[in-house]
Structure formats: structure tokens, C-alpha cells
Amino acid sequence: MNKDREELVMDWYELHYDDIYRFILFMLGDKQYCEDLVHDTFVRAFTAIDGFENRSTVRTWLFSIAKYLVIDEIRKRKRKRFFSAVGFSEEIASSFDVEQIIENKEMILLQMQNIQKLKPNYRLVLTLKKIEECTTKEVAEILDWSEVKVRKTLSRALHSLRKMNGIGGEQS
Amino acid sequence: MTNKHFDDQWKLLQQIRSTDTQKEAVRKRIRESIEGQPSKTHPYKLLQWKSIIAASLLVVIFGGFLFMLMEEKPKQNSSEYFVINHEFFSWKLEDVTSKKAGEKLELYNKNNPIPFGTVNEVTEAEMNSIIHSKPMHVNQELEHFPYKTFMYIEHVKMQDVAFRYYFFIPLTKEKWIQFTFDYPKIEYADIFQAISTLELKGKKPYHHNEPLYVTHGYGKMIYPVDLEPISVTSNNYEVYRWEGASTEAFNHYLEKIPRGYDNRFDNWKKESGKGSVNTFVSVDGNEVITITLNGNKLTYEYFYPNRDE
């Protein structure tokens, strides 16, 4: 029985690894931690598999698990001097393996660094909507928010990001 | 910047992914963790337990014989033989007690029943195994410390531990002493005060004749090693008692900050300051630190101007 569950979770891993990896990477900006939390997400999925009732998709359920882990990690990091402690650019740079991305490395690094400076809630909603392309309904489900809150927070997050980029506006 | 350009950026960001090697490594770790989980169905659990008990009995019996044989053997050369107990080491860090726990010593703060660190002897092979089996993020030899000291920092994902600092010091050709300290059970400054004032019984320490500074393992800011935390809060405000405080020592410290731990002059720029209050900005502009000396109290105020939090 455990073997069946294991195979099921490993199938999920093949399907959703990239999404979960990217989500955690954008939330934490730290490759090593990212790998640790991807691992923890799927191990937790394995242990909590009985609680998964197919009311949401596997992808949104995995995002919910990953969200708890990253929020917990961000709380830990609020302890003094952690944020400045972990190098960012060096970590991210080794995550590129697409030629087109390498060509735009500087711009992407800057944008990722800007996203890292946003409040955790802004980062969550922006990553899920703009990077992972979840629907507003899915984001609301993952974050356990109302859809109105998702829209408002996204709008504020984009506004903050625009300010960092020193530009005018973008509609969400 | 237009919406179209903004959309193009999102498209590029969506393509970021890890390498196949990383994916494979995480896949392997997940498999190992899942297979290490207890099974919910145990059809032959009793049989397994019987085997374990039988094996344990055999180990105890043969272990007993082995112990008796070893007791008969003469002790090793005393000049190369160290006993790790509370008398073996000392430091200026106060209110620390230790308790034997198996092969190692556990370190406690007075009146706190939870250990904040450990001390034990390891072989070179054991040390290498520790270094390679943990997610170590810093690997640094500490210069001008009392003994040749190698520091590693493990990222620990526990409720009460964020970082575990490892310090390895060679005792003999094959043996090393290992100290571990768990942050935030113990403050950064305390960790470095302990190691920078360490004295091991039977091993003469080296005393550097210049002030020593450390980066606390991470970051670019350097701190004197002889700081004792008075008030360290999460609100980016820290106050220390500086044992070596003096105007001369403070000026020496301020001069050293832009040069950094590695003398590269590319870490901090002095923004303002004269006398006892001085402000430094990191070269990327993301961190501003104001350092104030008042008597023997050294205060750090941290600001992160580009952080939206």
C-alpha cells in the first residue's frame, strides 16, 4: 500500500516538479533551500495523502503544501540578518539552462531580485498568478483567501513592482 | 516600459527551471525519505522485531567480550591521547555548563535545560562524512584564531534552530575536536567569543596581537570577536558590551570595515559619521548600518532601504 502511494507521489513529482520548484525559488530566492523545500513538499504530500480529497487539483494541493513551508521559512528568516546573509544572484544564476534566458540574464536577475524585495503576500500572489499562471480561483484556494483579496493584493503587488522598475503602469 | 514588454518578462521568468541533475538529486532524496517512513501495515512486524532483538543481543555479547579485551590493553601514548570532558576546554563565554551525553558533551546555558551545542572527538573520516552529508553553506578557515579552525555552517530546518555552526580543530594527526553551536539558541557573538577565546588542555593557543574581527559566518559586515550581547532583537537593533572598547579600538574597527574581512575594499562605504556614530552603506545599497559606541556599549542599527517589508 505504501508502495502504491510512493509511486503516485513520484508520478506527481514528474508532473509538477518544475512548478513547485519555480514557486519556491521565487518565494525564497535561495536554490539550496528551494531544493530542500521541494523535497519536503512531496514528502508531506506522501504523509498527508489520505487527507487529499480530490476537491482541488493535485497541482493546487501541492502549491498549498509548498505555501505553508515557504511561509514558515520566511518567518524563520525574519530573525535578524538572515535576508542579507544568503547570496541571491549567485544562487539564481546557476538555475538558468535555457539559452534565451541566458541572453536576458541581467534583466531576469534584476526582476527576480525586485520580486524578492516584495512583501511575502505580494510575492505569493504574483508568483502564483504571473509565473505559475494559476487562475484567480485557484490562487484563492491555495492561499485560502477570497477572490477579491487575491485581485486587490495582485494589483498592489504589481504597483510595487512597477515602482521598483521605475515605470508607469500595468494592468493586472 | 510597456505592458507588452512586461508580459515578455513574465514569459521569460516562467521558463526558469532547475537542471536535470538537480531534479534527479531531489527525486532520489524524496524516494529515500518516503522509504524511510514507517509503514502503516505491518504483516510481519513481530518477526522483524524478533530479528532485531536477537541481533542486538549478539552485539551486546560480542561487544562485552571486545570491551574486556580492550581493557587489558595498555593505554595509548599519553601525549597523543585526549579525554573530552568539561576540563579539556575553556573559554571566556560565561554561564556555560556541559553534560556527558553518550560519546559527546552537550553544552547548556545556566538555568536552561535545552542544550545549545555539543563537543566531541571525531576522526578525519567522520569529519569528512559530516561535512559531506549535511547541507553546509559556508566553509571557511578562521584566521588568527587560537587554533587552526575550520568553520562550516549547516542550514537546519527545525523549529528552534536555523543554523548549526561546526568548528573542527585538529588534535592529532587523526583526531579532531568538533564543536557545534545552534543559532538562535545561542547568539552569533557568543559563538565567536567562545571559539576565539578557546583554550584546550595540553595544547598551547595562539594569541594574535591585533584585534580580531569576524563576519559571523554570513554577510559582509565584520564584528569584533569580543562582543557580549546585551539586547539583540528582531527589530534590526542590537546592543553589545564590547570588552575591548576604547576610542582607539573603535577607530581601528571603523577603518577596517570598508576593507572587510578579506581586505577587498568592496564591501562597505562610509556614508556619514564622525566620533562615536558612524553609518556605512553596502556597495549594492541594500543595507545601511549605523554603528554607535557609547562607553563600552556598541550598538548596531540595520536598515534595508530597498526592501518592501
UniProtKB/TrEMBL annotation, chain A:
Residue ranges constituting the RNA polymerase sigma factor 70 region 4 type domain according to the UniProt record: 115-158
UniProt cross-references to Gene3D superfamilies, sorted A to Z: 1.10.1740.10, Winged helix-like DNA-binding domain superfamily/Winged helix DNA-binding domain
Record domain RNA polymerase sigma-70 region: where: 13-79
Protein keywords: DNA-binding, Sigma factor, Transcription, Transcription regulation
One Pfam family in the UniProt entry: Sigma70_r4_2
Transcription is among the record's keywords: yes
CDD domains membership: Sigma70_r4 (cd06171)
NCBIfam families: sigma70-ECF
Family per record: Belongs to the sigma-70 factor family. ECF subfamily.
UniProt protein name: ECF RNA polymerase sigma factor SigM
From TrEMBL, chain B:
Organism: Neobacillus rhizosphaerae
Entry keywords, A to Z: Membrane, Transmembrane, Transmembrane helix
Name recorded for this polypeptide: DUF4367 domain-containing protein
Membrane spanning residue stretches: 52-70
